[in-house]
Inverse folding.
């Protein structure tokens, strides 16, 4: 047996997901044992296989027009079933609150009247779009897909780092990682019961279809991409391919008389639902950037007329604003009447004079972030900054306090990562993905674990040299694998209690006694001739138990 | 089918065929240069370049031929360029081409990026090219639905094949009537074996030309390719059978078929170069007509895809 993990030293005051001191946590024992059966050379060979298979398949992301394979580390990140239930409910709760918030601020604005969040915080956000006011999205859904970024603090508590309800990306790597890992480490796989991730495209397509404009019985769905030079182009092609829908660019679409059509070799065909992966700013040159060639002139008018569904809805970016983020726990209490399941990271608002004074005083020990930054851009980590950088930052904070927040340096948790033939701790975060079909919020088991490959690096973003890990949600004893339900039935955790016979399970989950929408009592979806029917419980849209 | 995707698929068909034919031509002619002690190297190199539409450089030798036609990705007539372009078109239609076609193209492209074509012995580079292009074609035929998209791939493949065959025959006539030149052309077209089985060993210029141009059973002959291309166009637009109109691709192909069918061999032979040039022009105008009819709906100011 090799000593793969010998000499592995977790970083001080950091939660290591695999090791508690010198011993592996119980969930990871199997991974450790199976991996140590492989010789170190064999581990290297398997790791090389992961890189070469991604190169061959073109699993890439683009930086400045250059395609790069997305590094996948060979050590999986495990999340045990009960921990996952908490994360899942927390993400679902968050999405419901943000959904209610967006509907409110683009509608009546009750949240302002009730003084939960100052109107100015919302209206001063560059992503609050007045043009979206009054657009009633079909199915009342604005957040069709959400990616909520989580980290684990020194105590091992999952905390929300930021919300992404514009066009969160990365889910394609969740699916490709799983496929690659099961080929690279079949023996480790075989010793675990891992909840599958392959239902994602199916769930996404049904949610998009469910939110089609009213009266459309067989909606045409397309994926809108900015084109082959976009960083996430691989993801756009994968989603379109797995959903079996067209991948279009702006120039393939044309808006005429309030309808959106796609140009084909057989003429123009109507489009009902657009899963857009183009930013608001570029979506419709009539309303936004006039120099944009990526969008479709007239798209917004078609949406306003209720003839086309844009997913995610225009104007969602205001919910991603990091200053709005600081109010989300209050929004959860306000809209849902619940305590937040997942805490935020403590955050100072620079626009609050008291907060500002404190932050300026402790600049060298905090992380300061621009409120509308993405991809780790503009972040200053106080303890690592030079005197001069801090002085510059101080000036910028004073000039535009609305534009910044500050947080304590959170030591993201670490997971052993195979670097140059040995295991070393590397920081990770987690982006779970949620899909909202207007009725239920479904959370993909696991999500994208991003790992910062440079030693000690805390920014895990892929554009900053990050890689990823396959994220395994371990199926608990009450979970049934896909094999038992067969056919097209969706694997879901079974209701509380023991394993049920498939027929009994169907009857069991098809009950309609108004059971709350908890992770342990799902409805069951069946695909019938392309239409997805949801059997069983429906969740109360707001206010109910989660 | 999206117009933009149809265009990308059409060009995958063309570029793959172009790479394969170029590899065949180079393979055969370079062997010839090595085997035949009396052959004029520079003249032969010039005639190959001329047939490929390249202005001959000052010193046309084997090295410059290999650079221009094999491994220089900047040279628009090179195999490296064709394979890269096929891959780029597949990248832009990745949700439509099958994953197997994509992976075959992508791994080939990765090999080119790594400089394989230049590093390998030329004969190996040609074999690699032939194997990979044939693999891509076969995967397209066997793993893609034979819907409109596949018809565009096949259409592109056969228009390119006609164009390249015409160029090879032209190259044979450039090579100053040496007795072996037609047999070289037959080999370059991958037709030597099929020809011998059809005509026995009674090789003549006339028989070779007839075989390459008119044989209906040999899949790389002009007549066969015209029939396949015409068939694709019929599937893509069934109305065409009743209503033709000027400039239409089906009509251009049909005219070329009729000419080839009705022309006497002696007329054909009286001016082979002119006839071959006409075939190349036919391919260009058929491509233009296809683009006008099917692709232009999507032509946007910033189109960066397949070069015309």
């Amino acid at each position: 047996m090799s000593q793969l993990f010998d000499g592995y030293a977790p970083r001080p005051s950091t939660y290591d997901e695999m090791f508690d001191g010198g011993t592996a946590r119980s969930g990871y024992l199997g991974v450790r044992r199976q991996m140590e059966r492989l010789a170190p050379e064999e581990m290297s060979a398997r790791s090389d296989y992961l890189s070469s298979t991604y190169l061959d398949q073109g699993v890439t992301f683009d930086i400045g027009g250059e395609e790069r394979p997305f590094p996948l580390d060979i050590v999986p990140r495990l999340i045990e079933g009960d921990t996952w239930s908490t994360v899942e409910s927390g993400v679902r709760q968050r999405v419901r609150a943000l959904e209610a918030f967006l509907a409110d601020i683009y509608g009546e604005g009750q949240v302002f009247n009730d003084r939960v969040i100052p109107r100015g915080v919302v209206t001063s956000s560059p992503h609050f779009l007045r043009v979206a006011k009054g657009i009633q999205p079909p199915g009342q859904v604005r957040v069709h897909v959400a990616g909520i970024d989580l980290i684990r603090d020194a105590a091992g508590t999952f905390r929300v780092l930021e919300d992404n309800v514009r066009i969160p990306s990365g889910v394609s790597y969740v699916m490709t990682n799983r496929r690659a890992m099961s080929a690279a480490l079949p023996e480790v796989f075989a010793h675990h019961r891992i909840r599958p991730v392959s239902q994602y495209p199916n769930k996404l397509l049904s949610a998009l279809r469910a939110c089609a404009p009213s009266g459309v019985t067989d909606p045409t769905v397309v994926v809108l991409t900015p084109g082959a030079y976009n960083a996430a182009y691989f993801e756009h092609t994968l989603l379109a391919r797995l959903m079996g829908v067209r991948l279009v660019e702006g120039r393939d679409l044309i808006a005429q008389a309030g309808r959106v059509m796609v140009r084909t070799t057989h003429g123009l065909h109507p489009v009902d639902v657009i899963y857009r992966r183009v930013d608001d700013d570029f979506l419709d040159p009539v309303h936004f950037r006039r120099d944009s060639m990526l969008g479709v002139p007239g798209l917004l008018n078609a949406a306003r007329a209720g003839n086309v569904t844009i997913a995610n809805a225009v104007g969602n970016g205001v919910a991603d604003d990091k200053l709005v983020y600081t109010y989300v726990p209050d929004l959860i209490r306000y809209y849902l009447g619940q305590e937040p399941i997942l805490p935020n990271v403590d955050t100072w608002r620079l626009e609050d004079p008291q907060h500002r004074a404190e932050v300026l005083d402790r600049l060298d020990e905090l992380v300061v972030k621009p409120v509308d930054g993405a991809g780790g851009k503009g972040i200053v980590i106080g303890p690592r900054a030079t005197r001069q950088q801090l002085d510059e930052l101080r000036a910028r904070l004073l000039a535009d306090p609305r534009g910044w927040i500050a947080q304590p340096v959170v030591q993201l948790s670490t997971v052993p990562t195979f670097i140059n033939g040995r295991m070393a701790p590397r920081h990770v975060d987690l982006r779970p993905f949620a899909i909202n079909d207007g009725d239920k919020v479904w959370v993909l088991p696991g999500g994208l674990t991003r790992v910062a490959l440079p030693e000690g690096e805390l920014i895990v973003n892929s554009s900053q040299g990050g890689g990823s890990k396959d994220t395994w949600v371990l199926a608990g004893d009450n979970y049934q694998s896909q094999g038992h339900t067969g056919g097209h039935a969706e694997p879901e955790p079974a209701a509380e209690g023991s394993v049920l016979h498939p027929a009994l399970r169907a009857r069991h989950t098809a009950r309609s006694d108004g059971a709350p929408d908890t992770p342990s009592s799902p409805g069951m979806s069946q695909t019938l001739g392309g239409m997805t029917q949801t059997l069983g419980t429906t969740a109360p849209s707001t206010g109910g138990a989660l | 089918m999206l117009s933009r995707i149809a265009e990308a698929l059409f060009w995958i068909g063309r570029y793959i065929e172009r790479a394969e034919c170029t590899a065949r031509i180079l393979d055969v002619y370079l062997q010839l240069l090595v085997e035949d002690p009396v052959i004029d190297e520079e003249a032969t190199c010039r005639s190959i370049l001329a047939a490929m539409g390249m202005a001959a450089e000052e010193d046309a030798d084997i090295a410059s031929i290999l650079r221009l036609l094999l491994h220089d990705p900047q040279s628009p007539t090179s195999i490296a360029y064709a394979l890269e372009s096929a891959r780029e078109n597949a990248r832009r239609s990745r949700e439509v081409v099958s994953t197997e076609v994509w992976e075959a193209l992508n791994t080939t492209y990765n090999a080119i990026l790594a400089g394989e074509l230049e590093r390998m012995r030329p004969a190996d580079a040609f074999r690699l090219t032939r194997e990979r292009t044939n693999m891509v074609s076969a995967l397209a035929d066997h793993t893609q639905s034979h819907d409109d998209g596949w018809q565009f791939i096949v259409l592109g493949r056969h228009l390119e094949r006609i164009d390249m065959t015409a160029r090879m025959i032209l190259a044979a006539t450039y090579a100053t009537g040496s007795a072996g030149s037609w047999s070289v052309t037959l080999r370059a077209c991958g037709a030597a074996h099929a020809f011998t089985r059809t005509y026995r060993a009674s090789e003549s210029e006339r028989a070779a030309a007839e075989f390459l141009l008119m044989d209906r059973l040999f899949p790389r002959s002009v007549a066969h390719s015209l029939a396949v291309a015409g068939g694709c166009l019929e599937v893509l637009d069934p109305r065409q059978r009743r209503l033709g109109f000027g400039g239409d691709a089906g009509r251009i192909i049909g005219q070329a078929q009729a000419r080839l069918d009705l022309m006497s061999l002696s007329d054909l032979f009286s001016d082979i170069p002119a006839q071959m040039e006409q075939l190349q022009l036919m391919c260009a105008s058929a491509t233009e007509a296809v683009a006008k009819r099917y692709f232009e709906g999507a032509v946007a100011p910033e189109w960066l895809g397949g070069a015309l």
